[in-house]
Amino acid sequence: MELDEPIMKTNMLFLIFGLWVMVVAMADKGITVNTSSRRPKVVNIGALLTVNSVIGRSVKPAIIAAVDDINSNPSILGETHLNLILHDTNCSGFIGTIEALELMEKDVVAAIGPQSSTIAHVISHVVNELQVPLISFGATDPTLAALQYPYFLRMTQSDYYQMSAIADLVEYFEYKEVIAIFVDDDYGRNGISSLGDSLAKNRAKISYKAAFTPGASETDISELLTEVNLMESRVYVVHVNPDSGLQIFSIAKKLNMMTSDYVWITTDWLLAVLDSQEPPDPDAMGLVQGVLSLRPHTPNSNYKKTFITKWKNIKEKETNSFNSYALYAYDSVFFLAHAIDTFLKSNQEITFSSDPKLKNNNGSHLQLSALQTFDQGQKLLETLLSTNYTGLTGEIRFDPDKNLVHPAYDVLNMGGTGVRTIGYWSNYSGLSVNSPETLYKKPANSSTSAQRLYSVIWPGETSVKPRGWVFPNNGKPLRIVVPYRHSYKEVVTKDVRSPEGVRGYSIDVFDAAVNLLPYPVPRKYILYGDGVRNPSYSNLVAAVAENIYDAAVGDVTIITNRTRIVDFTQPYMESGLVIVVPVKKSKTSPWAFLQPFTIEMWLVTGGFFLLVGFVVWILEHRLNHEFRGPPSQQIITIFWFSFSTMFFSHRENTVSTLGRLVLLLWLFVVLIINSSYTASLTSILTVQQLTSGIEGLDGMLAKSRIRSLKDSEDYLNALRLGPKFGGVAAIVDELPYIELFMSYTKCEFRIVGQEFTKSGWGFAFQRDSPLALDLSTAILQLSENGELQRIHDKWLASSSCSSKVTEIDVSSLSLSSFWGLFLICGVACFISLSIYFCRVLCQYRRFNPDEEEPHELPEPESARRSERRTFRSTSFKDLIDFYDKKEAEIKEMLKRNRRQVNGHNDSPL
Predict the structure, then answer these.
(1) Span 64-83, mean pLDDT?
(2) How the protein sits in the membrane (predicted)?
(3) How far is the C-alpha of 827 from the C-alpha of 833, rounded, in Å?
(4) Could you read off the pLDDT of 743-779 as tens digits, one per residue?
(5) Are 622 and 885 in contact (CB under 8 A)?
(6) What is the 3-state secondary structure (H, E, C) of 68-95?
(7) Is-contact 469 233, C-beta < 8 A?
(8) Is 238 helix (H, G, I), strand (E, B) or coil?
(9) How many other C-beta atoms can be found within 10 angstroms of the C-beta atom of residue 873?
(10) Residue 202, burial from CB neighbour count under 10 angstroms (0-12, 13-18, 19+)
């Protein structure tokens, strides 16, 4: 026992030492001991980037600083340290793939990078197989968010949002077409594809995609820019790599493409270059004066200020400043560290196992068997997706599509020796001069009216917004299609004597409008049709939409279906459909003088003549001797007075107030009746009458046969024949054509009803053509200065029968048009008679036809009451006799009665 105990102790020491060596060796490879009670001392993480690049020179120091900060802070990973394994991809897809495979041999739990979208596409397939999360700080290709790459996470903003921001900028400045200049790789192609989708939402488009290969020579780029400079659009969107981007502006400046006629917009690569320079390189700033660019927005925080201070103390840096990619790389490392900490706290192990599918076959020297699968990769990926962390770049949290929430960009304008922020863009509320952090607290408002930016200094140091396009300087004239009409050649037709080959009203208007433009428009007119029949205008417009022609000039009516495929200018001629029918002169009738009034009107008018004469006779009989005499004479007076008022030739004077009132109102009624009768009779004897019952659109709603007629000669013959002899009852056509037709036929026909459509003629252009807008403005100027009317009078002068075509059929005037006058007159007669009879009755009550002699004594009061009762029962004959007495006699008798009554009252009893 004594001999065995030392031996056992020695063996135990060797065993412990062996285990310690094994643990250290496994720790070097990032492999934990299979125990759930201890955390690993070291966890391997990888980094893939192009060290010698604009992005790499900022990112490498940031990643190293992040790892150092994490390892020096026990509150993050405790006793566990991160072991950074960095590989340089050398900006090569092939080398980057090789470097990524070598990195995977080191048993890393996650990889930071790469910065290139092209390399990210290839490496994503590797990490998918090995289940190693890939956290990129610079791969912005929108397609990397696809379900095809489940282990790819993007810690920066996707180009999907950046292109949405550029599309909103294009819309804000009211441009419709852009030319995309981009590098022809996954990053460039997919980014520009996303730009096209975003522009289409705003009814804009990419008119040309100018792509060049990665690493293109100066000659290739110069040829490319020379080509796009010959095109129409002057709005360029540049989406290239930071390391070669400034070369484009250097060549553009040599080609004189940085003047006030141009608009340049770049993606965030430009600020990646300029932000890395402190102070900004004067030569670089001189190349990009007036350019608009974007930068991923990162909020100003104390954390960010601390990092800026720390950056100045980093010794292993190659630049004095850093770009936004450095911030995203720094946050990527911290974000991964917090996720690993959460992962380890959930008692998860870190183990690797061989993949049976990765074997060396056929004697290959590739060490595929050295690649191992991260057994807990899926769990770490889930932890990453659920982690919420606030870093230098703000809140880091993924949406269901694995994109960062709250995407936002700074909108910057290059000018002078620095960069000026003119606003911000966020997916929350579009363009604004307020920072996105303040807008998140308010309701979202992305309406067009809410978009706002500060003023821009454009290329050429001007604040005037460039037009954004010019007529292409490629020697190709504008292809203008012109309808070759068979009829109404005043509008547009072929002209062999003219150098342009066409003439007419529409051509003159177009040429006059083009002459007002501030730039030349070389054009070539192309006839459409054979001149034997009028061409199809719908097919003509469709040919413009299909890019067979650039524009259509002629009598093209603006209708809904056509506006869906082309853009029209402001209408230069108002138009609408009207109906033309034959007319004839009315025949004179012996009884035409009775037609102005209906029978009811004649009867009521005659009745009122008699009524008014009788009323005036009643009111004047007691006062006016001209209305007295034998009954036969008085009847004749009534009739004579009644009908003589029709001509204002009555001889009898009226002396009573009520009689004059009635006569005054009646003479007013007679004046209106006479005027109406005269006007109606004149129209009946002179107006043209329709030969059909069609008086407008309503008259054509019945069943009818529709015929297509060729020209004005067909119109004329068909209308003259009429429907009974193989012709037509009416013609429906546009007003300008009908006006010409009316002038041809010297007013033999006429327009009935109103225009039942409202439209106009315009010039048609391809969708979103800027010429349509400029020519619309020119047409308005022609209208304001009177030139448009002068051209109209030259070709389409109004015919001499224009006044006659507006006449309408005259029908007899009915009682409904005058019953108000008759009512007023009747009420006046009634009121006058009522007042008059009340007055007469009052006189009659005081008048006693059987009065006694003056010497008799007055009777007592009771006798007088009895006498009044007898008065009330007086016969109607007595009343008529009283009325027939003259007014002067009645007044004398009443005075005498009053004196008698007063005398009896004064005598003694």
Answers:
(1) 94
(2) Multi-pass membrane protein
(3) 10
(4) 777 777 888 777 777 889 999 999 888 889 899 999 9
(5) yes
(6) HHHHCCHHHHCCCEEEEEEEECCCCHHH
(7) yes
(8) strand
(9) 6
(10) middle
Contacts of 475 (CB under 8 A, 6+ apart): none
User: For residues 760 and 735, is the Cβ–Cβ distance under 8 A?
Assistant: no
- Among 158, 455, 480, 117, residue whose Cα is nearest residue 296: 158
**CB-count burial class (<10 Å; 0-12, 13-18, 19+) for 153:** buried
The radius of gyration of the chain from alpha carbons, rounded to an integer in Å, stands at 52
- Distance between CA atoms of residues 404 and 386, nearest Å: 12
Place of tokens 């506006």: 563
Quote the pLDDT of residue 356. 73
Between 832 and 547, the higher pLDDT residue: 547
Cβ partners under 8 Å of residue 114, min gap 6:
48, 49, 50, 89, 96, 100, 120, 123, 136, 138, 139
Q: Distance between the two ends of the chain, CA-based, in angstroms? A: 187
Number of residues that this document lists for the chain: 909
Q: Two tokens at 514? A: 């083009």
Contacting residues for 312 by C-beta, under 8 A, at least 6 apart: none
| Integer Cα distance of 25 and 106 in angstroms | 13
DSSP code per residue over 510-570: HHHHHHTSSS---EEEEEES-SSSPPPHHHHHHHHHTTS-SEE-SS-B--HHHHTTEEE--
* Contact (CB, 8 A) for 767 and 567: yes
C-beta separation of 715 from 751 below 8 A? no
Decide if pLDDT at 867 tops 60: no
Q: Is residue 898 classed exposed, middle or buried when 0-12, 13-18 and 19+ CB atoms within 10 A define those classes?
A: exposed
**Roughly what angle, to the nearest 10 degrees, separates helices 218-229 and 242-254?**
60
| DSSP letters for 110-154 | -EE--S-HHHHHHHHHHHHHHT--EEESS---GGGGSTT-TTEEE
Model confidence pLDDT, tens digit, residues 224-254: 999 999 998 999 999 999 998 999 999 999 9
Residue 859 or residue 299, greater confidence: 299
**pLDDT score, position 361:** 57
Instruction: Name which residue leads in pLDDT, 751 or 554.
Output: 554
Taking residue 406's Cβ as centre, other Cβ atoms within 10 Å add up to 18
Nearest CA-CA partner of 409 in 239, 271, 275, 306? 271
Residue 759 phi, psi dihedral angles, 5° rounding: -150, -160
The C-alpha atoms of residue 477 and residue 491 are separated, in whole angstroms, by 24
Residue with tokens 């700033």: 285
Integer angstrom CA distances of residue 726 from 66, 691, 699, 717, 719: 96, 15, 20, 10, 10
DSSP string, 153-172: EESS--HHHHHHHHHHHHHH
For residue 80, pLDDT beyond 60: yes
AA letter at 34: N
Tell whether the model's pLDDT for residue 212 goes beyond 80.
Answer: yes
Give residues with Cβ within 8 angstroms of 339, minimum separation 6.
380, 383, 384, 387
The pLDDT score that the predictor gives to residue 863 is 46
- Taking alpha carbons only, the member of 569, 591, 479 closest to residue 524 is 479
Per the rule left: phi > 0, alpha: psi between -120 and 50, beta: everything else, 547 is left
- 220 token code pair: 């290739």
Output the DSSP codes for 401-434: TSPBSS-EEEEEEEETTEEEEEEEEETTTEEESS
pLDDT at 599: 85
**φ/ψ bin of 307: left (φ > 0), alpha (ψ from -120 to 50), beta (otherwise):** alpha
CB contact at 8 A, 582 and 719 = yes
Cα of 250 vs its chain's centroid, Å:
40
Q: How far, in Å, CA of 568 to CA of 562, rounded?
A: 9
- Separation CA 872–CA 221 (nearest Å): 126
Confidence of residue 319 (pLDDT cuts 50, 70, 90): confident
